[in-house]
Here is the input.
Amino acid sequence: KAGNPVLGLTKDDFKVLEDGKAQVISDFETPDMHFNATSVAPVSARSTEGKKMAASFAASSRPETVLVLDELNTSSVDASFGWQMLLKYLRKQPPTLEDPTAIMILNKRRLTKIADFTQDTALLIQKAQKIELELPSHSSENGVQGAGDLMLTSLLALDEIALSNADRQTHKNVIWIGTGFPVLSTFGVDLVDRERFLSYIRYTANWMQETRTTIYTIDPVGLPVDETALITSNIGSTYVGQDFGSVSGELMFESLAPGTGGKIFRNRNDVDVALAIAAANGATYYTLAYYPQNPDFDGKFRKIDIQIVDRPDLLESTQQGYYAIDEGFGASRNELDFALSRAVTSPLPFASVQFDAVGKVLFSPPFTARFSVSVDRNTLSWDVQPNGDQRTEITVVDAEITRKFAILNYKVKEMEIVVSKKDFENSPNHHVVFSVNVPLPPKADHFRFVIRDAATGHLGTFDVPRQGLGQQLSASK
Here is the structure.
């Protein structure tokens, strides 16, 4: 209750309830275990899911922190203050951070990565100092449609952060510095639009769960100076909704924070201290897993309640529930296709599927380039065929993109790949190689390839600059 993380608890200290019914904890990970990449929690006898869970635990390591400065939804004065507090926080840290940390900004154009994951504090400060603040968007002046645009842009930014880091089973902590999108209820949202906006939030919430991402929101506005402002700013400080869609009955960005196990920081001027608290909380956590006793995966929200047995001196913060989608998140084709489109348009790299592409220009018009794509076989999922061969299905997208990230053309192709039993066993580290012909429009700055694993929905991207293409070949070759 004093706000300090507590170590040394055991599985017997916890009780898990789903929709009020007690569940059996099958796997348990202590805070020190996720610092060791070789540690594996005990796995229950349910083999298929158990193996997946074991692999997840085995791949875990130091948690990762993503610091996001939201220029899109925040006034210039408050964004500037948030930026200064970000630098102040970094300057207080030791030369080597305990956890890998990245910095991103969200402005009117897109989400941009300022600094990739590093534990080098000096490098983060150097990168953060180069952030150029911009005037925020005025979309909220256009009523519910404009406010809805800001909401969707903000949620998509979170989706991109989660999806681009989905290959790493570490716990991710997104610390969002900004006011978030406007409270949509103030625009008189009707029931149809409200349900549509809630679906966006649910979509993002599912990706947060799937990628083990927790959100902390820090409002840089600071402490209000008058009572009216204080009452207004307190909205959303307590999570009371039945799912991720509402805080105090409102459609708010901040509703995602406590729903994922994070926290909302408002009404304080020491934003740098709030950053330190959020980073510390996100680095110390227990992981509990259970098989839901309710077998009816009807897509509805299920509330999770974690209780600490006989320890009234402790308070817990955890993911507050999930949407019961059959066969995991990949059951929704529309949502997976939407994630695929984000991978095509996002400036962030996606790395769950590892591959590269090398292109050469062909002579004959219409001018095209032939790319050889080489995929790391170990980052794809494979099914054993009756004869022992291995089979996988992937979706391949190639897109030609301008310098301003506008898509000129794109093509989607579904591929089935079969590797013989002999080749698969004798060459475990070999790559899958195939060719793709891509047009060369004059305005194309670079080419982005996206590969999605059909079984898992995992995504990978690879960018090739136009000037990086190899020597020309004759079309006959």
About this structure: The first strand starts at residue 14 and ends at 18. Residues 233 and 396 are 46 Å apart (CA to CA). The two ends are 71 Å apart (CA to CA). The longest helix spans residues 143-164.
